[in-house]
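User: Round two. Same drill as before: sequence, then structure, for each protein.

Assistant: Same drill it is. First protein:
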Amino acid sequence: MLDVDRDVDNGKVKPGQYLVLAFDFSAANRSSDVEAAEASLNGMLNSSIRTFYSTYAPYLGTATDDQLIRENVFPSAVESLTECVHVVNKALNAVREEDDPLCGVKGIYLLADEYDAFSNEFLSPDDARPWDHLRSNANSLLKGFWATVKSVLGVRRITKCFITGVSPLSMADRTSGFNVASYVSWRRELSGLCGLTEEDVFAALNMPGVCRTEDEMQKHFKVMKDNYNGYNFVELSQVPHIFNTNTCLEYLESLVRDEPINPSAVCNSEVSEPALQILAASPVASSIISDSLRSQDPKIPYDKLVQSFRLTSL
């Protein structure tokens, strides 16, 4: 049983309270041409809104998903998002009976996965022009998107947002339109969100086709614990360490294929080329990394970490 299943069974999590609108910013084509990249981003956003209608059309009135898409998805994804929230708000306001499927639904839960994947391609301490276009250009799609999200926050609209990313770039630096975010990575109650717990790993190893015997399961668990465990995202707090999700999944997949890999040579843990270029060009980042490598204890203390930073900080 996964931890989330246990939380549902124990009443800590109540499913069915939100309509989920998910955006994956890594899916957009990040061309070096900013305008071409924004066109791809616009297409990704609209595609996600179409998926939302296809999923929830039976609950949003009498229109079919095709009708909802045809009438409410516009060339501009920002307009599409605004109209999508209006459609949901209208449907929720129309609920009158307790047996209505939407009774108890609070609104839209917006998920933005890898929110920085798109704009990180244009980060460069040596040439800030592409970044400035995304951040301060009046016609910037990224700026318009987050400004719109902020404008439609509220009851029976976008009720909650959850945003994930790798680099803690200030949302205010990215766009002055969204300055209401709270940093939650270090919250104790979310300590297991950024990885897998021991229970999660054991549950995966116990699935059919992964391990043949108890001894084999224990052997592979030890390998994974020695190589992929030890992450802690909670400042000044003792919580169970978690396993790196990507490396665990790659190792588990190799077990399913019956082709075990070198546990220290998984390929899903490399730093991206743009990130390496940014770090190499940044005097601040280079100094921190150099000091850490020279230290007998290469761990970077929590008080040296920041919850967000601006491009000028590099």
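Second protein:
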Amino acid sequence: MIYYDLSLVKSQPTTKKKLDKIAPTKVSNYHFKKMNHNIYFEKNQFSKNPLLMNQPINNSSKFKCLKLTSQQLQTETEAINYLRSFLTPEDQDKRLLFIDNNTFKKLPVNPYYLTTVQVQNFMKHRLTIKKLVKENEKINHSHEFNYNQKIYNYERFNSALSGFQFMVFFLGIAFLTMLVSCLMFKILSGAAIDQSRYQILRKIGAKVHVMQQSIGIEIGVLFVLPAFLGIIHVLFGLRMFGLFFTNPYHQVFGVTLLFLIIYGLYYLLTTYLYQKLVLTRK
């Protein structure tokens, strides 16, 4: 599983000026040379900066970071394929060899550079990251050659979930409307019976604003309890989605706020209509 926010393959090291635009927290460079059907890496550079890879923990959404040295990259199939995924398509089937620094320098070809980058805020810089990826593809005359680019994984995942998000949002609004409408009509259906009770209170001297406050509190209790239980239920239910999402509670505050606004508007409308029905003089 991809660990890096960006990876680039070039015949020249990526300049610091370009990378500064995305505020990198760590940049690692691995140089390699291509000869015939072989790709030669200097093995010492993986000792200083092991290649990092995410590995799922027990089929959950959590990952542990593996540090891959040249030894692992030579012997472990998963590690080898992971390193291959950073290369261009024409190089991914070539044999990977790891040699010492002196032997590497003696190879009579120019080196290439694999640059891996981690940034502090991927979402903030994702457009700039995509621009750098596109530039790198143009240099290598290849389109989306690196399926391990985080930006492409993000876009594929986001595209797949967009329809699901719309469906969940639509169903949520529909169920919320049905719930509150049922609650509102249940309260208003009893207004005719309660009207005589409030008329008696008016005759014995009860003030209108006091009765309005009483109605507001009475209806408020009926609205608050379902809302409270519903929010608690959803917060616990979201834990189930921990199998699919790293943070299932992402933006839950905003969604809850939207729910409370809609719910509050229904409460105000119900209170207004109920007061109008029961406090109107005959």
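The chain has two domains: 6-148, 160-278.

User: Perfect.
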